[in-house]
Amino acid sequence: MPQASPPPSQPWSQRFETSLHPAIARFNASIGFDIALIEYDLTGSQAHAKMLAKTGIISAPEADLIVQGLEQIRQDFRQGAFVPGVDDEDVHFAVERRLTELIGEAGKKLHTARSRNDQVGTDLRLYLREQIDQIRGQIRQFQAVLVTLAETHLETLIPGYTHLQRAQPLSLAHHLLAYFDMTQRDWERLGEIRHRVNVSPLGSGALAGTTFPIDRHYSAELLGFEGLYGNSLDGVSDRDFAIEFMGAASLILVHLSRLSEEVILWASEEFGFVTLKDSCATGSSIMPQKKNPDVPELVRGKAGRVFGHLQGLLVMMKGLPLAYNKDLQEDKEALFDGVNTVKACLEATTILLAEGIEFRTARLNSAVAEDFSNATDVADYLAAKDVPFREAYNMVGKVVKRCLAQGKLLKDLSLEEWQALHPKFEADIYDAIAPTQVVAARNSYGGTGFEQVRQAIGRARESLSSSDS
Ligand code: ARG
């Protein structure tokens, strides 16, 4: 028995006998999330239409109608007058349908010499290029806050740790600027990746190119791409750029998460290095005394999501035969969520540092005076007087042991006691082991010595003001 012909709900419906099972239609559709690409889809299609007219594939009046119709869709979408539904399958079909409703026959010519495969690749790259620019701007804001804090706290001291054991005292500015340098790499890395995102697949067609005399260079130029994919199969099926981005995003989250972990520790009663301001902390539903560091905890937690997306994209790609496969539709939610998560974490952390946290400077400065984090400096003192470092180190180890047994600090030893330990000790040993001097003395390039940190602040300020490449 002949089947009733299906409603022509999709551009491809004429080929089919029956319409899609509603659950399968929902399963197949990406409109629920790829609507995020609509502005890029419109821009990409406008460039494609102009290229079709330039090469004489469609007429100039047809191209004008298409470009204006797409602009109308942009306005309608922004004003909420165009709301695609699940019947549209994806954003590309939604736009094409709407365009044809708006301008009639000419709208049906837009998809000449193009496939959704090169179209979606174009959209994704335009989207990611813009997101990268925004994220780099956010990194700059975060870094500016770090530098300002570093300037304020050049002379604030903080215990430095290795193995989470007190190691040597630091300038707090030096500690903060470590995050400047980490995020500087993030900023640069995104700039490098941007070049590989910014390559046009448009004109690759479904997989093999097209029979029409298109001008790929022209559409690429209109869209601000720096280059073209040289192989159409690679053009439609490459997602390296998304994976690279997620790798870079993961590293940003590694850095933000490490800072978050430190803030969480610092805010604890045990450390007591910072106080969280009410604007950036929350209370408990049962314990009235509590003030919780939710912001850094969420950043630390969200890092896992981004790492998960990186893994998801890698696994999605590894078994795909050339060229396009529908698996690739799965790139979008990962990419969108990765982008949104990085942006949200950068914003929240920047606010936290700028106005949500107060360093307890008095407590920080006294913390470093109450420990043995100046022990290396005693050894260095003797080594500078020609005592072999290892010998000096062993001697100081014994002194620390004795002080611990007697409940004393190194600064509590009398000059006689010092000199009994080694005749080369003189009265200036007390200066040498005072925390400020311990920090100041580390004047090697990149060290925590105040002079070095002042220079590091200068370098940071310079790179903030000359930032563009
Ligand atoms: N929604 C699809 C995606 O996101 C668009 C490309 C569809 N291409 C195709 N050959 N079915 O990947």
Write the layout of secondary structure elements.
Layout: H1 22-28, H2 31-34, H3 38-54, H4 60-78, H5 91-103, H6 116-152, E1 157-162, E2 165-171, H7 172-197, E3 199-200, H8 216-222, E4 227-228, H9 232-237, H10 240-266, E5 274-276, H11 294-318, H12 331-356, E6 357-359, H13 361-367, H14 375-384, H15 389-406, H16 415-421, H17 429-432, H18 435-440, H19 450-465
Parallel strand pairs: 3-4
Antiparallel strand pairs: 1-2, 5-6
The chain binds arginine.
Arginine binds at residues 30, 34, 90, 116-117, 120, 324, 326, 328-329, 332.
Explain this structure.
The chain has helices at 22-28, 31-34, 38-54, 60-78, 91-103, 116-152, 172-197, 216-222, 232-237, 240-266, 294-318, 331-356, 361-367, 375-384, 389-406, 415-421, 429-432, 435-440, 450-465; strands at 157-162, 165-171, 199-200, 227-228, 274-276, 357-359. Helix 4 packs across helix 5 (91-103) and helix 7 (172-197) packs antiparallel against helix 10 (240-266). Helix 8 (216-222) links the parallel strand 3 and strand 4 (227-228). The model is unreliable at 1-5 (pLDDT under 50). The protein is elongated and about 100 Å long. Helix content is 60%, strand content 5%. It has 469 residues and is mainly alpha-helical. The protein has a two-stranded antiparallel sheet. A two-stranded parallel ribbon has the order 3-4. It starts with 21 loop residues before the first helix and ends with a helix. Bound molecules: arginine (ARG). The site of arginine has 11 residues, from helix 6.
